[in-house]
Design goal:
Distance between the termini: 161 Å
Radius of gyration: 43 Å
Shape: globular
Strand content: 25-35%
Structural class: mainly beta
Largest sheet: 12 strands, mixed
Length: 413
């Protein structure tokens, strides 16, 4: 019995040792296993991630020199801020804009900034269709006249633009023209022409537009469209102080050429007459003009004179200048103009004349207002022919009445 109990104690002790050993081994194995990190081969922790910076792209500006002192702002295509690898750009190159072939483009093909006389000479000499020449404020003197001889096109005119403080001059009222335009499709905008023998002269040119300019202090006429210039426009401009040297030639605007000068070289078309046709004169003020405010010569046809103010015009009486408007061409539409402040030799508010057979007829006067006291008619016709004066014209201060023909009153229609 004692041996059995001893034997059982021994067995129990061995079993207990074995159990303890087994448990100890399991704990060691568990600790060893927990000390071995598990590595995930395709995962990188965010604390160790460093982004690779993109390779910077340098955009070098494109320049196209236009001369030593003349700059151009759109001769080179505008580069997008995107790197060159981008398939699209944010701006289309300005050298090839999309335009309608029948209307002038609002976008210049080249913009040429001018701030000196030499730069202006070069810009005018090198002008191309679609150029915009911008003048800085200042006085630009050219004794032999500033000349615009290059040709633009209907779709891409050449524009000469400046503020009123940009002044073109020949240097004196007995010198040359201020600006001489002989190329087609020029636009003259905003600037001033002054202190010259004549202001702006347009010869043998098509599609000239003169807009919002100031022409003053002129020896003879301020603006002329002549020598078969067609489709010309004068609008929104101030013209004053003309005829300072020769009052007889001191018109505000002169369209065509007098018959007495048709024999001069280059003044006429193939039939020997000056057909400066299709002229539009609108929205201007003519002030202190020695001769007629608007002299519309024989040979001209199908022009329009509307919404202008003629203030103290034709006061000299020289060379029969005694009315604000004289229509000697055909089929002019003369409408909604105002004549005011007559003085000196002023006779009729407006006139027509037949200086050569076949001209001085077909003109229509409507909606015009003649203000102030005048010695003659509101509208005097010499003779009446097929000219028509509508009854919506007014001239309450005209001593002889609203309409006359060869000095006798006639009815309006």
């Amino acid at each position: 019995m004692t041996r059995r109990r001893g034997h059982l104690k021994t067995v129990a002790l061995v079993t207990l040792v074995a159990l303890v050993a087994t448990a100890a081994g399991w704990v060691v194995l568990r600790r060893q296993t927990s000390l071995a990190p598990v590595v995930m081969p395709h995962v990188t922790t965010s604390s160790r991630f460093t982004p690779t910076p993109p390779t910077p792209t340098t955009l070098e500006p494109s320049t196209t020199p236009l001369g030593p002192s003349v700059t151009t702002s759109v001769a080179s295509p505008t580069t997008s801020a995107r790197p060159p690898s981008s398939p699209t750009t944010s701006a289309r190159p300005s050298s090839s804009p999309t335009t309608s072939p029948s209307t002038p483009s609002n976008q210049a093909l080249r913009t040429i900034a001018v701030s000196s006389q030499e730069q202006l000479r070069q810009a005018l000499a090198d002008a191309q269709p679609g150029d915009l020449i911008t003048l800085a404020a200042g006085t630009y003197t050219e004794p032999n006249a500033w000349r615009a001889a290059a040709a633009g096109s209907a779709a891409h005119p050449i524009t000469l633009r400046g503020p009123r403080a940009a002044v073109l001059t020949s240097g004196g009222t007995s010198e040359d023209y201020g600006l001489y335009v002989t190329g087609d499709y020029w636009r003259i905008e905003g600037l001033t022409v002054a202190n010259s023998s004549k202001g702006i002269i347009v010869e043998r040119a098509k599609g000239t537009v003169i807009d919002s300019v100031h022409v003053h202090t002129i020896g003879e006429e301020a603006i002329a469209f002549r020598a078969c210039s067609t489709d010309s426009v004068l609008r929104n401009s101030l013209v004053e102080d003309t005829g300072l040297v020769t009052p007889a030639y001191g018109e505000g605007v002169y369209v065509g050429t007098a018959q007495s000068n048709w024999d001069k070289p280059g003044r006429t078309c193939i039939d020997g007459k000056d057909h400066s046709n299709g002229t539009l004169i609108e929205g201007n003020t003519f002030r202190t003009i020695a001769a007629e405010g608007a002299d519309l010569k024989e040979g001209t046809d199908n022009g329009t004179l509307r919404n202008n103010i003629f203030d103290n015009t034709a006061f000299s009486g020289a060379n029969y200048a005694d009315s604000a408007v004289d229509a000697q061409g055909n089929n002019w539409r003369i409408t909604n103009n105002v004549v005011r402040n007559p003085s000196g030799a002023f006779l009729d508010g407006m006139q027509s004349h037949e200086l050569i057979p076949g001209y001085g007829t077909g003109n229509v006067f409507s909606g015009n207002r003649i203000e102030g006291s005048i010695r003659g008619f509101g509208i005097g016709l010499s003779p009446q022919l097929n000219n028509r004066v509508s009854c919506d014209n007014s001239a309450p201060g005209a001593a002889k009445g609203l309409v006359g023909s060869w000095g006798d009153p006639v009815a309006c229609s």
